[in-house]
Amino acid sequence: MTIIGIAGGATFAPLQQATMDGVDPRLAGTASGVSSTIRLVGGVLGTAMLGALLPARRRCNAPRPPRSR
């Protein structure tokens, strides 16, 4: 989690600056809001995909319980 926090902090500011560089100052608030929304939606979708795929993979690789007679 520490690595994710450091990497996120190190990349967010430059990416936000690159996004805002070409924007008309009158639209800066809108552009910032859209950028943040896209980042958050991407995080939610990524988390949902991992949450759906990892348990399915774990079930496939789990040993089967012994049969009872």
Q: What would you say this structure looks like, in words?
A:
The chain is mainly α. 78% of the residues lie in helices and 0% in strands. The protein has 2 helices and no strands. The protein has helices at residues 2-21, 28-61. The radius of gyration is 20 Å and the shape is elongated. The N and C termini lie far apart (46 Å). The model has no long low-confidence stretch (mean pLDDT 84). InterPro entries: MFS_trans_sf. This is MFS transporter.
What would the keywords be for this entry?
69 residues, mainly alpha, 2 helices, elongated
Order of helices and strands: HH
Tell me the β content. Answer: under 5%
Number of strands: 0
Count every helix, treating DSSP H or I runs of 4 or more residues as helices. 2
Specify the structural class: mainly alpha
Radius of gyration based on Cα positions = 20 Å
Overall mean confidence score, pLDDT: 84
Helix content: over 70%
Catalogue the unreliable spans: none
Q: What is the distance, rounded to the nearest whole angstrom, between the alpha carbons of the first and last residues?
A: 46 Å
| Main sheet summary | none
Identify the overall geometry.
Answer: elongated
Oligomer class: single chain
Protein name: MFS transporter
InterPro entries: MFS_trans_sf (IPR036259)
